[in-house]
Amino acid sequence: MNWQHKDLCALADHTAQELMTILDTATAFKGVGERNLKKVPALRGKTLVNFFIEPSTRTRISFELAAMRLSADVVNISASASSLEKGETLLDTARNLEALRADLIVIRHKSAGSARFLADRLNASVINAGDGAHEHPTQGLLDAFTIREKLGHIEGVRVAIVGDILFSRVARSNIQLLTKLGAKVTLVGPPTLVPASFSPLGVEIAHSIDEVLEESDVINLLRIQHERQRKEYFPGVGEYSARFGLTKKRARRLKENCLIMHPGPMNRGVEIDSAVADGKGSVILDQVTNGLAVRVAVLYLCSGGAPMASSATDQ
Ligand code: NCD
Predict the structure, then answer these.
(1) Residue 139 CB–ligand 1 contact under 6 Å
(2) What radius of gyration do the chain's Cα atoms show?
(3) Is the minimum distance from the CB of 173 to ligand 1 under 6 angstroms?
(4) Phi and psi dihedrals of 286, rounded to 5?
(5) Angle at CA 105, nearest 5°, toward 68 and 128?
(6) Given a cut of 50, is residue 315 above it in pLDDT?
(7) Is residue 223 in contact with ligand 1, taking CB distance under 6 Å?
(8) Residue 229 in contact with residue 236, Cβ under 8 Å?
(9) Which of 10, 286, 300, 314 could form a disulfide with 305 if both were Cys (CB 3.0 to 4.6 A apart)?
(10) Residue 264 Cβ < 6 Å to ligand 1
(11) Burial degree of 257 (CB within 10 A; 0-12, 13-18, 19+)
(12) How far apart are CA 235 and CA 192, in angstroms?
C-alpha cells in the first residue's frame, strides 16, 4: 500500500489500510531508534519547521527528534516568538516559512481546521500536531501502535477512553483510528463531557467508570482540559476523581493484562492515582517512546518515502 499524501491533517481523511501503512513503517523505524547509530539519511537536505502556537513538551520534542533521526534540519518557533504577535495572519507566517524553503511544517494551533487550511494552500507538507479540540493524528497513531505492540492486535480489543472527551483531540483521533481498525471503543465520562452525539462515530457511551473496569483491555485516561472549557462541566475536581478517577481500588478490578494509557500531561491524583500511573500495566512512557517512531514514519511517508513492511502480524 502506498502513501500518496504530502500532509497528515486528520485520521478521518484516511483509510484503515493507509493508517496501517504508517503503523507498519513506524514498526520498521522503531528498530532504528534502538541502534547505537540512530540516524538515517532519508530527509538529508530537507528543513522542518516546528510551529507550535500552543504549549507542548512531548509532541514538539518528539517531532524535533524524529526530524533529526531522518537527518533533516529543524527550526522551532512558538507563538510568542513569531510575528503572529504583531498581527500577521497564520497563512502569511506560513507562506514566509515556505519562502524560506521549509519542506515540512508541523503545526499545533488552537483552531480546529488550521492544519488543513495551511495544507490546502502550501506546497510544503503540513503535519497536524493538534488543532483545537479536533484531531491529534500522531497521538492517535502512537496509541494504536502501543496497543498493537503490547497486545499483538487491535481488532476486537476493548478500549475505554475516560474523561474530557468533548474537548479532546486525542479522543477524536483515537476514535477515528481504533474504530477503523476494528477495536471496540467505549467513551466514559459525565454526560456533559460525553454527550450522546458521539454515538454515530461507532462507539459505546458509559457514564460510570465502574461499568468498564472488568471488561476493558485498554483504559486510556484523559486530562480535564480546563483551558478549553468555558463553563463548569462537573461540580469539582474532587468529585470528578471520586467518580471517574482510576484509583488504586479501581485498578485492582482491571483485567490482569489491561493496559493503562495516558497521552500526558497527567494530573496525578485527579484522573489517575499516582501509584497506578507508575505501576503494573502502565504503558504511559512506552507511548512516549513509540511516539517518536510514529513521527519518524509520518515525516518520512509525507516526504515521499516508500512504505516499509513490518513483521507485525495483525490485519
Ligand atoms: C495532549 C494534547 O495536547 O492534545 N497532549 C499531548 O499532545 N500528548 C493532551 C492534553 O493536553 O491533555
Answers:
(1) yes
(2) 19
(3) no
(4) -65, -35
(5) 105
(6) no
(7) yes
(8) no
(9) 300
(10) yes
(11) exposed
(12) 11
**In whole angstroms, how far apart are CA 88 and each of 50, 55, 83, 122?**
18, 20, 6, 17
Distance CA 234, CA 251 (A): 23
State residue 274's pLDDT score.
98
By C-alpha distance, which of 189, 175, 255 is closest to 222?
Answer: 189
pLDDT digits (tens, 9 = 90+) for 71-117: 999 999 887 777 777 788 989 988 998 999 999 999 999 999 999 99
CB-based contacts of 197: which residues, under 8 Å, 6+ apart? none
Closest CA to 160 of 278, 275, 90, 261: 261
Q: Mean pLDDT across the chain, nearest whole number? A: 93
Residue from 139, 222, 283 whose mutation best tests the ligand 1 pocket (most atoms within 8 A of CB): 139
Q: Is the CB of 136 under 6 A from ligand 1?
A: yes
**DSSP-assigned letter for residue 48:** E
Residue 178 main-chain phi, psi, to 5 deg: -65, -40
- Alpha helices, DSSP H, located in the chain: 16-33, 58-69, 90-99, 114-119, 137-151, 169-180, 237-244, 248-251, 274-278, 284-302
Mean pLDDT of 222-250: 88
What mean pLDDT do residues 228-250 have? Answer: 88
Atom of ligand 1 nearest to the CA of 136: 4
DSSP 160-213: EEES--TT-HHHHHHHHHHHHTT-EEEEES-TTTS-GGGGGGT-EEES-GGGTT
What are the pLDDT digits (tens) for 13-72?
999 999 999 999 999 999 888 888 889 999 999 999 999 998 888 999 999 999 999 999
Per-residue model confidence (pLDDT) at position 310: 62
Q: What integer pLDDT is reported at residue 313 of this predicted model?
A: 36
Summarize pLDDT for 171-215 with one digit per residue, the tens.
Answer: 999 999 999 999 999 999 999 999 999 999 999 999 999 999 999
Ligand 1 pocket check for 295: Cβ under 6 Å: no
The Cα 162–Cα 209 span in angstroms is: 7
